[in-house]
């Protein structure tokens, strides 16, 4: 996924909400249920860097501030609520899943717990109070410290990603997973294995994307320098703010990637006749969360037809007044596809 400074604040929460209704749109091609305003649920997941060892709130405190400044309505979720700042507590944002001292998979460690064998206990389909929309992960520092079978550490991380976001049987199959690289490790001899671990991550994430999992990579390590560390393994306040910067861009880039193209009323990545059908069936409706409300004024009308028509391209689009019958609509779909008229697809990529 592209990471750039251009990824500034965007009205993207609506996009995530409409994503949740995409299946309904595809199935019914009709009026969608009204979207309910709800915060974007973010789970900070990892070890003591996520917990915030020796720094109240860790990177979570500045990230919350930056999310607020970006205009995003978010809620931190997780199985822990320790080590907050007073501001996080006051805002009800104290939750996280940062587990100090943990490795990726504790089943191979003689001394440490890990995420892999424990995460089922707080994350799963039935654990609605915690279920995240986005997971932010940094894990592996303790594997490096222990020299814990590092050759296969990426495999363990890969298994953990799949365990969480596998579309078929993951613990949070609808969540997006943002994998962060590891910040500097100042213990003697540990930066090289940290770098080696980090170097594998982009390719690993790409493999998971190709498998249909919603995963992206954020190179947190490129933001945080050794001067930003408070001890051997943990960031100071400056470093924590930089981690927050990295994850904020990762979140914004993900939200941008799922933003439907103008006129893509059934959220399938294409602007085509199926979207016209969604508009036609909803024409005249009003209220929040309407998929065919292309200009966001909570009314579905000719202006939204124009949004779809203009996105469709230079070719003649079906007239709004034609209002074809369902059978005529199907014929229209077939004829348009046969003619190979313009389609647009939105694809999120890693680079
Ligand atoms: Ca579409
Ligand atoms: Ca409208």
From TrEMBL:
- A single GO molecular function, which one? phosphatidylcholine lysophospholipase activity
Arranged from A to Z, the UniProt key words for this protein are:
Hydrolase, Signal
A biological process term (GO) from this entry: polysaccharide catabolic process
> Which CDD domains does UniProt cross-reference here?
XynB_like
Pfam family, any one: Lipase_GDSL_2
Which N-terminal stretch is annotated as signal sequence?
A: 1-24
This protein's source sits in the domain of life called Bacteria
The keyword Hydrolase is assigned to this record: yes
Xref: InterPro entries? Dockerin_dom_sf, Ester_Hydrolysis_Enzymes, SGNH_hydro, SGNH_hydro_sf
Q: Where is the SGNH hydrolase-type esterase domain?
A: 45-241
Q: What is this protein called?
A: GDSL-like Lipase/Acylhydrolase
